[in-house]
Write a structure and sequence with these properties.
GO terms for molecular function: oxidoreductase activity. The protein is of the alpha/beta class. The protein has helices at 13-24, 41-50, 65-79, 104-135, 159-179, 203-211, 223-234, and strands at 4-7, 28-33, 55-59, 84-87, 142-146, 186-191, 245-248. Helix 1 packs parallel to helix 2 (41-50) and helix 1 (13-24) crosses helix 7 (223-234).
């Protein structure tokens, strides 16, 4: 059965890497983003060419309640059912500031998009999935949260980002606990250093650290690396692992002497 998937922030970066992998897997894709539709047209066309059966674009900011409602409504109108939610959308601070200098404005912006938005979007989608699951047993829905090694690795120049990802990690456990009684798994995929727009300005720094042994696999990760992990979850390859963290970090977080 073809799965219908909503990917927030799915038109570029890690989100697009996930979308590419799921397109090759033959999923129907609802791509969410804040850019105008004309600016993501090439990405949508690419996904169709990779094998996605149907691709739609749902413009909207997940931090805004009315826009979350609009996104879910558009997905259900297009597909009828939603089988998979991938909470990928996220931002870093507009300006990296020391934890002693971070502003409330920056804190609120990052937390609203990275944590509050996904929390209430998941709440709404979960209600739909519960109703779907009661009537359909052959296609198990799931929720996948894309966090970051920043959930457990402190970075004092972007404290608000670290807090948002730590919160997203706990959010995974909370929804996994609640939805367990309905047989709906919830997973966390935790990327390490991935080459995206967000890391573009510090890639040289990371590459120098990698050359000195920062991680076990001596390369920067790609969005496609994350996409392959998400595809495995969507395909049900981890049926007995709800609430668990799938690391995609090249061995960066393994403690070493």
């Amino acid at each position: 059965m073809t799965k219908n998937v909503l990917i927030t922030g799915g038109s570029r970066g890690i989100g697009l890497g996930i979308a590419r992998a799921l397109a090759k897997g033959g999923c129907n894709l609802a791509i969410n983003g804040v850019r105008e539709a004309k600016n993501v047209a090439l990405a949508l066309k690419e996904l169709q060419g990779l094998g996605a059966k149907k691709v739609i674009y749902c413009q909207g900011n997940i931090a805004v309640p009315k826009e979350r409602e609009k996104i879910v409504t558009e997905v259900l109108e297009a597909f009828g059912q939603l089988h998979v939610l991938v909470n990928n959308a996220g931002v870093g601070p507009l300006k990296r500031l020391d934890v002693l200098e971070t502003t409330e404005e920056s804190y609120d912006r990052v937390m609203d998009i990275n944590l509050k938005g996904p929390f209430f979007l998941t709440q709404k989608v979960a209600d739909h999935m519960i109703q779907y699951k009661e009537k359909n047993t052959e296609n198990v829905p799931c929720i996948i949260n894309i966090s970051s090694i920043s959930a457990t690795t402190a970075s004092i120049s972007r404290g608000e980002y670290c807090l948002s990802k730590a919160g997203l990690s706990m959010m995974t456990q909370l929804f996994a606990t609640k939805l367990g009684e309905y047989g709906i798994p919830v997973y966390e995929v935790r990327p390490g250093v991935i080459e995206t727009d967000m890391t573009a300005k510090v890639l040289q720094k990371y590459q120098e650290m990698i050359n000195k042994g920062l991680m076990l696999q001596s390369r920067i990760g790609s969005p496609e690396d994350v996409g392959q992990a998400v595809l495995a979850l969507v395909e049900g390859k981890f049926p007995y692992s709800t609430g668990q963290v799938i690391m995609v970090d090249g061995g960066l977080t393994i403690p070493r002497l």
